[in-house]
Design a protein that fits this description.
- By secondary structure, the chain is an alpha+beta fold.
- The chain is 58% helix and 15% strand.
- The chain has four helices and six strands.
- α1 packs antiparallel against α3, α1 runs parallel beside α4 and α3 packs antiparallel against α4.
Length: 186
C-alpha cells in the first residue's frame, strides 16, 4: 500500500468523523427549529419503527416551530406519541391534519448545558481524529518496513498526515464555534 493510499484512507476517515460530528450537533436543540431535531425520532408505522422523515414532510414555517404533515393521517397519533417519548422535551399539538411543535426559548442554564454537550462532542471528534492519525502512522511504518521505503519518504508521509489532521481539527473548531454562537444568541 503506497503512502498516497494511506493518506487518502486517513483523509476519508477523518472526513467521515467531521460529518458525524456535524450530524450530532444538528440534532441538538438550539433556539431555532430545524428538521434535524426530529429526524432521529422513530414512529411505529404498522408495527415497524420508521424514521419520521419517511412517514411525512417536516417544514419550518417559523424560526421556533416545526410542522409535520404525515402522508397518512392515521399516523398522527403515532407521530405525536413518538415525539412525546423522544428526548426532545417538547409537547406536540395535533390539529387533526398536522402536528405542530413549538420550541420554547432556551433558559440561560440550558444554553450553557448545550454548549458543554457540544464541547464534549467536539472532544470525542478530536480523539477520533487522533486515533485515525495514530493508526495511519503505524500503517506508514509498516509500509516502510514491508515495501522498503526510505525513512525520508515515511517522514514526508507523516508530515503530510499531520497537516491533514490539523486541517480537520481546525474544521471541528470552526463548526463548534458556529454552533456555540448559535446556541448562545437570544
Amino acid at each position: 500500500m503506497p503512502i498516497a493510499d494511506v493518506l487518502a484512507h486517513a483523509r476519508e476517515r477523518m472526513s467521515k468523523t467531521v460529518e458525524h460530528f456535524q450530524h450530532q450537533l444538528a440534532r441538538l436543540r438550539t433556539g431555532r427549529a430545524t428538521p434535524a431535531l426530529v429526524e432521529h425520532v422513530r414512529v411505529d408505522y404498522y408495527g415497524v419503527p420508521t424514521p419520521l422523515t419517511q412517514v411525512g414532510t417536516i417544514t419550518v414555517p417559523e424560526p421556533r416551530m416545526l410542522v409535520i404533515q404525515p402522508w397518512d393521517r392515521s399516523l398522527l397519533g403515532a407521530i405525536e406519541k413518538a415525539i412525546l417519548q423522544s428526548d426532545l422535551g417538547v409537547t406536540p399539538t395535533n390539529d387533526g391534519s398536522v402536528i405542530r411543535i413549538v420550541l420554547p426559548p432556551l433558559s440561560e442554564e440550558r444554553r450553557r448545558e448545550l454548549v458543554r454537550v457540544c464541547k464534549r462532542y467536539a472532544e470525542e471528534a478530536r480523539v477520533a481524529l487522533r486515533n485515525i492519525r495514530r493508526e495511519s502512522m503505524e500503517e506508514l511504518r509498516r509500509v516502510e518496513k514491508e515495501e522498503h521505503l526510505s525513512e525520508d519518504e515515511r517522514r514526508r508521509g507523516e508530515q503530510e498526515l499531520q497537516k491533514i489532521t490539523d486541517k480537520f481539527t481546525e474544521e471541528i473548531e470552526r463548526i463548534l464555534e458556529r454552533k456555540e454562537k448559535e446556541i448562545l444568541e437570544e
